[in-house]
Amino acid sequence: MQRLSNPRQDGRDIDNSYDVVIVGGAVIGAAVAYYLTANPDFTGKVLIVERDPTFTHASTSLSASGIRTQFSNAINVKISQYGSEVIRNFADLMQVGDDRPDLNFHPGGYLFLARTAEQEQTLRENHEVQRDCGADVELLSPDDLIRAFPHLRADDLVLASYGRSCEGWFNNSGLMNGFRNKARAQGAHYITDEVVAIQRNGSRVTGVTLKSGQQIATGHVVNASGARASLTAGMAGLHIPVEPRKRSVFVFSCAQSPEGSATINQGRLPLMIDPTGVYCRPEGTCFLAGCPPADDPAVDWDDFEPRYAEFEEIIWPALAERSPAFEAIRPINFWAGHYAYNTLDHNLIVGAHPDLPNFIFANGFSGHGLQQGPATGRAVSELIIYGGYRTLDFTEVGVQRIVENRPFVEKAVI
């Protein structure tokens, strides 16, 4: 096989043909590469093309780094259950030599609060789905809530939903780097470049063109390009309803921290989702918070300026109303990241396009990509290797619903 002359990030010359080219090397692309190269039934070659090896603006790097089983659709519950299993066993699974990556998982759980009858009904309906999947989630009355988390005010609440296990937060870059390093050790090639064109012959993708001018022939292309997913799809003549939506994150100190005051879970506070949509969780000795913006337009792919006013106008008032402990707080850090937002139904889009079966989507995670990365990587690898799913069936979140404009709505989006 002929090789291209330029060595790249791995220090190896790049071949002119790969069985799989993955566009995007953050957590989704890294997970796909890992599961492909870990499977003894796959004997092909994998190339991951990443435009920014620092991952400075990747959704993976800028996320709030949580995992939860509290979703409204069974497939999303099961995806997170598998993700939790991978996180628990990550050091063993991703060991390379003496390096055993520790994700520093904090099992704080998630706590959803309901104030209206509609919110209560949603929590109860979601709980039925979660319980049927075996998720360790319980519903709390306002009295139960106060007993468990005494710092909270609950006089306006009607119900709460709390994940007792398999929920929390962890090292986001650690997950991505663990998958990436293991995939590389298993033979995957990583290069710093950018896919600028995709070639197709009728109903098959045949290759990609890189910004450097090099052309790579391939048997499959995986779109793992995050908030830029629509750009990658467009190169293949396809459409996907994914656009970048900005989310600002704030870290604040607290004069009278309530961490350690819970009467359950060894005093640990959960990631709390207020009825206003404001969320808050411990972050070391501080707290991390964010909210859905009042106005939520698509933004430019390079717009990462935080919406500073959200802290004083939305987040602080909601938190101070919920707990006296949050009346005296001070922001100390902030950043903005992008949701790869699926405008159709806020749900992931995974699978082959019916008109282009060797072009695989792994997109539209709408803020859940980090926690859904392990199951997605495994599912995509099964599609490529076996032509169908062997573990979790991702058909419900496949591309066909996009083509038919048939929403499969996920209601529990933070």
Automatic annotation (TrEMBL):
Residues 19-383 form the FAD dependent oxidoreductase domain. Pfam families: DAO (PF01266). Keywords: Membrane, Oxidoreductase, Transmembrane, Transmembrane helix. Gene3D superfamilies: D-Amino Acid Oxidase, subunit A, domain 2 (3.30.9.10), FAD/NAD(P)-binding domain (3.50.50.60). It comes from the Bacteria. The keyword Metal-binding does not apply. The chain crosses the membrane at residues 20-37. Coiled coil: none annotated. The keyword Ribonucleoprotein does not apply. GO terms for molecular function: oxidoreductase activity. GO terms for cellular component: cytoplasm. One of its GO terms (biological process) is mitochondrial respiratory chain complex I assembly. This is FAD-binding oxidoreductase. It comes from Paracoccus amoyensis.
